[in-house]
Amino acid sequence: MPVVALDFTPALKQSAGIGRFVRGLVGGLSRLTSEFSFLLVATRDCPPFDPAAHYGPRFRLIRLPFSERTFLAAWFRLGLPVPLDRLVSGFDLFHGLNFLLPPLSRAAGVVTVHDLNFLVNPRWAPVELGRFLRRAVPASVRRADLVVADSRATAADIARLLNVDPGRVRVVYGGVEPPEISPPAHSLLDAFGLEPGFILFIGRVEPRKNLPGLIAAYNLLRQKYPDTARPLVIVGGPGWLYDDFLGALAASPFRADIRWLRGLSDAEVAALLGQAGVLVYPSFYEGFGLPVLEAMAAGVPVVTSNRASLPEVAGDAAWLVDPEDPAAIAEAVHTALTDETARTRTVAAGRERAASFTWEAAAETLLDVYREILGKRG
Predict the structure, then answer these.
(1) Which of residues 163 and 376 earns the better pLDDT score?
(2) Averaged over 296-302, what is the pLDDT?
(3) How, if at all, do strands 258-261 and 37-42 pair?
(4) Contact 175, 354 (CB under 8 A)
(5) Distance between CA 295 and CA 350 in Å, rounded?
(6) Can you list the domains of the chain with their CATH numbers?
(7) Would you say residue 42 has pLDDT above 90?
(8) Any idea which of 216-220, 248-252, 262-266 has the lowest mean pLDDT?
(9) CA within 20 to 30 Å of 71's CA: 83, 305, 335, 365, which one?
């Protein structure tokens, strides 16, 4: 039975973003019958985890004898030439699920590059992290047998910005779990001073998410349509370089109706999503854009950006807007909230759209990538 080793550290250390992506993908793999077994590789500083209990007997966990910081420093900052498969044995292919692929001596390798925001616009990543990724990601891509992208848009970026033959890139879309959203207890909404029907954003607060633009659009919406007095709820922790967001928040004449909620559990976020009137996701750049699909699956209409992967993910089941045009965002939000015919049509299209993005489908596509690589290796 071929053994695939998976970089599982993000799943254990990141509650959102790539951590959720990895957990969803591994869950999808666990629900499929295949010829593979899986070795989940985690660094020493990850919390306890029982893979058999979560994913079944084909999944085992092994811990590297060092922390994630040491892992990154050894292979990607210092360039130490010790292959991973000399430290951990018993696998045929290693999949770096978080941009990076360590050196390998005999085993095959594949790396997932979720996006290239650190190359598209260096301001979108912290200085040190961006500098590190601009060295480590190209090196990882060069040593990989194949490269996986979350979308066709990201695949095109990989080919263009990293000078990679498009024939070496495979697209594996993300998925969305079937919605299991119940109306939240009244105490949850009461705690935040909310009623159903609010305007919602979900995501980390960082420059590419365009939150100053969202607040500008909200200001215009409230000024032009005073009857649309819905709160704006921003759910997500602070990332980096968010002074512009804080300035826009403080300067808004509707500051009292803008809530910034941090530290919520997945269950609380899902509950709030189920009560939203519209999800607004005006990001400048996304490799995939999972909140868009999650809102669609929950029956919440979506206003999102017409850039990067977002039109590819949303299809014709959302309002697509120029993220640099607050007036266009405001008009789309107003339509989503007040035009019942358009809203009903878009919600139905969104549910249908989201149903085509499952983690099982993602896992099946990924298994074909593994088969392709190992088949060529003989």
Answers:
(1) 163
(2) 96
(3) unpaired
(4) no
(5) 8
(6) 3-175+358-377 (3.40.50.2000), 186-355 (3.40.50.2000)
(7) yes
(8) 262-266
(9) 365
Say how far apart CA 372 and CA 374 lie, in whole Å: 6
CB neighbour burial string for 328-354, b if at least 16 within 10 angstroms, e if fewer: bbbbbbbbbbeeeeebeebbebbbebb
Q: How far is CA 20 from CA 8, 13, 17, 24, 355, in A?
A: 11, 10, 6, 6, 18
Distance CA 38, CA 11 (A): 15
Tokens for 271? Answer: 């509950």
* Average pLDDT score over the chain: 93
Return the DSSP state at 214.
Answer: H
Tokens 């070496």 sit on residue: 168
If one counts every other C-beta atom within 10 angstroms of the C-beta of residue 18, the result is: 19
Q: Which residue has the higher pLDDT, 180 or 346?
A: 346
Q: CA 374 to CA 369: how far, in whole Å? A: 9
Burial class (CB in 10 A: 0-12, 13-18, 19+), 65: exposed
Rounded mean pLDDT, 318-347: 98
- The Cα-based distances of 286 to 120, 202, 278, 312 in angstroms read 11, 13, 19, 11
260 touches 99 (CB < 8 A) = no
* pLDDT of 181 higher than 60: no
- How far apart CA 325 and CA 373 sit, in angstroms, is 44
